[in-house]
Amino acid sequence: MPHLDLRATTLDREHVDHAHDFHQLILATCGVTELAVDGEGGRITASRGCLIPTSSRHEYLGDGRNRTLVLDIPRGSLAALRDADRIERLFEGPRFFSVPPQLHRLAGSLMQQLEQCPALHSEIAALLLRAIHLHLESEPLAGDGAFPLARRPCERLHLARLEAWVDRHLADEIRVEQLAALCALSVGHFHSRFREMTGLTPQAYVQQRRLRHARTLVCHSDLSLGHVASLVGFRDQGSFSRAYRRHFGTTPSADRRAP
């Protein structure tokens, strides 16, 4: 059995931006994760998954309530699988795909098996990958999106209005759909246009606004760090401190102690 690394996890409300030298499959049984691959954005939900090829830069921001299956597929690990060549072709480019009810039920069942028998993760992963391959083979690119999206000029993206709205809602969950709706754009078009104009994805921009406001509160108020975290939309102090350190290169506590 090839080594396929499958795990069940909850993706926090913490912005992560990276790439890696293996393919990856993302599939959720509940909750929402905002995800962008090579600058093009979408959402991972119970009805939508994503395939991420090797070396594709991607970023994500979970809602802290999701349950997500993450499958890492190292180079060469597909060779022993049935239909290995066809499965490998699924990762020729980044792709979101629809998850029908029967596949969602299978994912939920496999997640339970994985949690009960973690030693069988490679066998469970192979079954999941095979099921997704059969689904996508029967409905190739079934209207749910391969990249890239069209990039068209748009006059409706008002950055000042978006910034003001985001700053008023830092304590809340902020979804890309909400920002796109403010501009009367589709999510895909908004994401592309926003990145063209700012150099950031909407997820990265919102995280940046949260952390900049947090630093003001850390350095110029007596609020506890846990309270600051909640005011800028983090569900706990731990995820807030990790994101703060990644962004500023120092911890909130160290910033507060600095002269």
Residue fraction in strands: 15-25%
Q: Can you say what the CATH homologous superfamily of the largest domain is? A: Regulatory protein AraC
CATH A-level architecture of the largest domain: Sandwich
**Spans where pLDDT lies below 50 across 5 or more residues:** 141-155
Strand ordering within the main sheet: 1-8-3-6-9
Q: How many structural domains?
A: 2
- Percent helix, as a range, is 40-55%
Mean pLDDT: 87
Which CATH class of the largest domain? Answer: Mainly Beta
Q: The biggest beta sheet, please?
A: 5 strands, antiparallel
CATH topology of the largest domain: Jelly Rolls
Number of helices in the DSSP assignment: 10
Work out the number of β strands: 9
First and last CA, distance: 57 Å
Give me the secondary-structure category: alpha+beta
Computed over alpha carbons, the radius of gyration is 20 Å
Order of helices and strands: EEEEEEEEHEHHHHHHHHH
Question: Looking at the chains present, what oligomeric state does this protein adopt?
Answer: single chain
Question: Mind explaining what this structure looks like?
Answer:
This protein is α+β, with helices and mostly antiparallel strands and 259 residues long. The protein folds into 2 domains: 5-138, Regulatory protein AraC (Jelly Rolls); 159-257, Homeodomain-like (Arc Repressor Mutant, subunit A), CATH 1.10.10.60. 44% of the residues lie in helices and 19% in strands. The protein is built from 10 helices and 9 strands. A 5-stranded antiparallel sheet has the order 1-8-3-6-9. The chain has a 4-stranded antiparallel sheet with strand order 2-7-4-5. α2 (101-116) packs antiparallel against α3 and α5 packs across α6. It is globular, with a radius of gyration of 20 Å. It starts with a strand and ends with a helix. Mean pLDDT is 87; it is low at 141-155.
